[in-house]
TrEMBL record:
Enoyl reductase (ER) domain ranges (all copies): 11-322
SMART domains hit by this protein: PKS_ER (SM00829)
The protein's name in its UniProt record: Quinone oxidoreductase
Residues in the signal sequence: none
Sorted UniProt keywords: NADP, Oxidoreductase
Parts of the chain that traverse the membrane: none
Keyword Secreted: no
Organism name: Saccharopolyspora oryzae
Record-linked InterPro entries: ADH-like_C (IPR013149), ADH-like_N (IPR013154), ER (IPR020843), GroES-like_sf (IPR011032), NAD(P)-bd_dom_sf (IPR036291), QOR-like (IPR047618), Quin_OxRdtase/zeta-crystal_CS (IPR002364)
Matches recorded under NCBIfam families: PRK10754.1
Keyword hit for Signal: no
């Protein structure tokens, strides 16, 4: 019998329940997939708390890797027995198996393990669009990356090094600083004891950086704005500390005619051709060892409550996965 994590109301981690569920046969355009590993992402907590809307009751999770067990009518790009990975709606990845839209699936190259895929599909594709789509970052640029020792951060640091980009990374502890440095971070700022914007100005000889990548949100928004060079871009791609405050348009002019964007991964992988291009480069880097995916926390699916507690406490480093 299949099992899944479900929630019937929004709130603290304790709202999640481990339940037996019935999994039917796939309909038109659908597949049934048996999960081998499931990704744990900070975005999962947004659905649980209600920051991101979900029709309740609902499943949890948007990322997993596994094997196709059955296909419905009209499915041609994957077949029974294929190794696949995915990220995106609908919710329900925290499960041993499920029926889902086939269009979400990406073929998983043989050299990439299921656990690795579950740890990097969302984070890796996020890094891919940050570096390859949202801003024309080029060799020699210096950028600011918050949460440099996080799941996206550790992939970003390695990819940025391949592209010849200098990264100033923020972290919360000495332990995380060491991890960030080991993954290629050029300048580490411990934000709990240093003024981030001041350090950025020192490192850049007063110029600031052309782009800031900020997944923290409320707590770092002002420092991010203050770190930008004239006509720089602030990329707010996460809200780990809460939503960013309302934006005063005049302040963008005062700060140097800067720009702010709040992108979502879904809009960069909606087109199958673009998704294939972004995932292809990511998978090639990982399969050939140019980018290493470290898994620092592993949980059983039934321990999702503890996993969310750890994630929200800031104790997690790098990527986390559920073993199935």
């Amino acid at each position: 019998m299949a099992h899944a994590i479900r929630f019937y109301e929004t709130g603290a981690p304790e709202v999640m329940r481990w339940e037996r569920v019935a999994v039917g046969e796939p309909g038109a355009g659908e597949v049934r997939i048996r999960h081998e590993a499931v990704g744990l992402n900070f975005a999962d907590t947004y659905f649980r708390t209600g920051l991101y809307p979900a029709a309740l009751p609902a499943g949890m999770g948007v990322e997993a890797a596994g094997v196709v067990e059955a296909v419905g009518p009209g499915v041609h790009h994957v077949g029974v027995g294929d190794r696949v990975t995915y990220t995106g709606s609908p919710l329900g990845a925290y499960s041993t198996e499920r029926v889902m839209p086939a269009a979400s699936l990406m073929a998983l190259p043989d050299p990439i393990a299921f656990e690795t895929a579950a740890a990097m599909t969302m984070r890796g594709l996020t890094t891919s669009y940050l570096l390859r789509r949202i801003y024309p970052v080029k060799r020699g640029d210096t950028v600011l990356l918050h949460a440099a020792a996080g799941g996206v951060g550790l992939i970003f640091l390695q990819w940025a090094k391949l592209l010849g980009i200098t990264v100033i990374g923020t972290v919360s502890t000495e332990e995380k600083a060491a991890v960030a440095r080991a993954h290629g971070c050029d300048h580490v700022v411990i934000h709990k004891r240093e003024d981030v914007a001041e350090r950025v100005r020192e490192i850049t000889d007063g110029a600031g950086v052309p782009v800031v990548y900020d997944s923290i949100g409320a707590a770092t928004f002002q420092a991010s704005l203050d770190s930008l060079a004239r006509r720089g871009l602030l990329v707010c791609f996460g809200t780990a500390s809460g939503p960013v405050p309302p934006i005063d348009a005049m302040q963008l002019a005062v700060k140097g005619s800067v720009f702010v964007t709040r992108p979502a991964l879904a809009d960069y992988i909606a087109d199958p051709a673009e998704r294939a291009e972004l995932s292809g480069e990511l998978f090639d880097h990982v399969a050939n060892g140019r980018i290493e995916i470290g898994i620092n926390q592993r949980y059983a699916l039934e321990d999702a409550v503890q996993a969310h507690r750890d994630l929200e406490s800031g104790r997690s480093i790098g990527s986390s996965v559920f073993s199935v």
